[in-house]
């Protein structure tokens, strides 16, 4: 007798269910997506014992007649697609026809459904994949599905479930994600006998998010004006500079209304924030992408979590451009509309005051550090720190080249709105020899003088490095590095970028790369490890990556050592000059490490603290 045989129908169903039903949260996800596809306006979820004992989902969608109700229990039966052409342009959340039969095969399952124009509905009871009962019912229009005793017939799978609280937390996160993706639908979640949350339908994404994460966070989010790039549209809400979390729970991305996960999108978000977020922190984002369904493949993972794009570079640049444009031009300004009156002391004339925040000894040290970074620059290159008779580093830096995107982005002609000026603030004093107190139309603003000076110096040095190029240090003997084929192809496609970054590299037969020079700022005993970091950076960055990106960590470390510190006393005119320079920066609201430079306490907040309002 042969060794190969057909599995029984029940065993095949249980094997298939293992791909779709990983845990109770998977059941909730699949059933809620079916309710959304059924054009429901209200979805209620009831959970007992973390979904192990009971999952009940009730919606008011268009329901099914008896024939369709019986057919939906058959494997690969679906109303979403009809042919291969539909598979190439999927516009619904579900489409495989696997979820309901898979769930019914590993639970005690009851389906109740009625169409709005029918006098009676249909009730079907299924135990472990076998239909036990079919009868009429008088339920309201819509569909209700009960899943009891999940995995009761697969003890091996059930014992791998976590605690009830853990399983419930996954369910709650799943529902919160779907509620954010579809703010026009009412969602209610009941755990046992307690109502966890009830979200009425709304047309405002901010209102829906605030209802889930709180108004304190929701009100601080920045709205993305719809950004278009090569067939992709990006909108949503993102956190301001400096707002980060230690995990990705508040980093949500939706594609055509479907929650998706893709490493490329995560890297694009990080690239969009760049120096506006501390390392190790994840941005708070509720990002919505829209594109032609034919430009993305959602039929990659059984749970439909992962997607693949026809043009990955286009979607990456769309996300980076939307985030960068929002952080630079759409974020709320701290204060506006109040003239700078200075202090009671008489303000010297510009000819009398040449403010320099760095002592002469520190300037020499910073100049030495800069020369160390650029030690192989030709002698005729201009001194990046200026002449000795003009030692100040807080003068207005040349504006950096903005990131450019194709004309179809729709934002090229928008321009940046006029930002706040130093004249919008009134200097009141310094708190703790570190925090500069400023009065504005909207309230009190505190400026961290160290973080502010870091940002000013960082942008000035980065701009000079951008315009003068990244210096290269020639090697006494060429370095031969053999790379995997994938990495070699990546390097070969980006040789021009590497040359701008201070590398001198060329193919040397097979998958071997010959390197004749490295960036002058590189202080590493392991160039191969650094080259791997370069490749990771290229993968994560836009096609228009700045040629100084790899040197920015060096610059940030350098300026941190030389920026004014706490307890460094500054004169009023020096504080005014620092404020002016900060507001001229490309990203004035955070230092190069992502810490805030300006914090506002509004008048309503102050009035609430003093009991003048509730």
Mean pLDDT: 79
CATH architecture assignment of the largest domain:
2-Layer Sandwich
CATH class of the largest domain: Alpha Beta
- Overall shape: it is globular
Structural class: alpha+beta
Radius of gyration: 30 Å
The oligomeric status of these chains comes to: single chain
- Largest sheet: spatial strand order: 5-4-3-6-2-1-7-8
What's the end-to-end separation, in Å? 82 Å
| Low-pLDDT ranges | 335-355, 373-417
Total domain modules? 4
In CATH, the topology of the largest domain is named Heat Shock Protein 90
Strand content: 15-25%
Helix fraction by DSSP (H/I, runs of at least 4):
25-40%
**CATH 4th-level superfamily of the largest domain:** Histidine kinase-like ATPase, C-terminal domain
Note the main sheet. 8 strands, mixed
Count of individual helical segments: 19
Number of extended strands: 24
């Amino acid at each position: 007798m042969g060794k190969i045989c057909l599995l029984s129908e029940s065993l095949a169903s249980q094997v298939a269910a293992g791909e779709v039903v990983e845990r109770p949260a998977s059941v909730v996800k699949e059933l809620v997506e079916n309710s959304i596809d059924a054009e429901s306006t209200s979805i209620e979820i009831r959970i007992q014992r973390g979904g192990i004992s009971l999952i009940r989902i009730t919606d008011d969608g268009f329901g099914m007649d008896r024939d369709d109700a019986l057919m939906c229990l058959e494997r690969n039966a679906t109303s979403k697609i009809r042919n291969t052409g539909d598979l190439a342009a999927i516009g619904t959340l579900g489409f495989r026809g696997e979820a309901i039969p898979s769930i019914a095969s590993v639970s005690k399952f009851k389906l109740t459904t009625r169409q709005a124009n029918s006098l009676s509905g249909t009730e079907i009871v299924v135990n472990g994949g076998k239909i036990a009962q079919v009868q009429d019912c008088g339920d309201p229009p819509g569909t209700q599905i009960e899943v009891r005793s999940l995995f009761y017939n697969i003890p091996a799978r059930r014992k791998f479930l976590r605690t009830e609280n853990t399983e419930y937390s996954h369910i709650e996160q799943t529902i919160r994600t779907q509620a954010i993706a579809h703010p026009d639908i009412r969602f209610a979640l009941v755990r046992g006998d307690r109502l966890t949350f009830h979200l009425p339908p709304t047309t405002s994404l901010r209102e829906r998010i605030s209802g889930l994460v709180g108004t304190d966070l929701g009100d601080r989010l920045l709205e993305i004006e719809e950004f278009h790039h090569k067939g992709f549209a990006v909108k949503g809400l993102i956190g301001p500079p400096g707002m980060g979390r230690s995990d990705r729970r508040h980093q949500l991305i939706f594609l055509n209304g479907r929650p998706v996960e893709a490493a490329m999108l995560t890297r694009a978000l990080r690239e969009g924030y760049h120096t506006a977020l501390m390392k190790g922190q994840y941005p708070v984002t509720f990002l919505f992408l829209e594109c032609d369904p034919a430009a993305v493949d959602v039929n990659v993972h059984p749970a439909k979590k992962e997607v693949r794009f026809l043009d990955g570079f286009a979607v990456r640049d769309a996300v980076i451009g939307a985030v960068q444009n929002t952080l630079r031009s759409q974020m709320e300004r701290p204060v506006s509309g109040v003239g700078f009156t200075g202090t009671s002391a008489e303000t010297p004339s510009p000819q009398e005051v040449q403010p320099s925040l760095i002592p002469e000894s520190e300037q020499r040290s910073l100049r030495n550090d800069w020369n160390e970074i650029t030690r192989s620059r030709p002698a005729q290159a201009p001194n990046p720190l200026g002449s000795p008779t003009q030692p100040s580093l807080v003068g207005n830096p040349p504006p950096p080249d903005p990131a450019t995107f194709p004309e179809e982005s729709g934002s090229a002609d928008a321009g940046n709105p006029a930002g706040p000026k130093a004249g919008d603030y009134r200097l009141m004093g310094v708190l703790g020899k570190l925090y500069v107190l400023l009065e504005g139309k909207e309230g009190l603003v505190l400026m961290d003088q160290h973080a502010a000076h870091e940002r000013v110096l960082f942008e000035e040095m980065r701009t000079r490095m951008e315009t003068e190029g990244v210096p290269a240090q020639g090697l006494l003997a060429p370095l031969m590095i053999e790379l995997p084929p994938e990495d070699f192809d990546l390097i070969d496609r980006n040789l021009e970028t590497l040359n701008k970054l201070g590398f001198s590299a060329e193919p040397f037969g097979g998958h071997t790369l010959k390197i004749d020079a490295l960036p002058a700022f590189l202080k590493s005993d392991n160039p191969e490890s650094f080259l791997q970091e370069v490749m990771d950076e290229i993968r994560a960055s836009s096609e228009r990556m700045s040629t100084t990106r790899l040197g920015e960590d060096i610059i940030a470390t350098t300026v941190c050592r030389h920026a004014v510190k706490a307890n460094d006393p500054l004169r009023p005119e020096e504080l005014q000059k620092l404020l002016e320079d900060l507001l001229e920066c490309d990203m004035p609201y955070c230092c190069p490490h992502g810490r805030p430079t300006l914090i506002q306490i509004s008048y309503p907040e102050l009035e609430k603290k003093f009991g003048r309002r509730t």
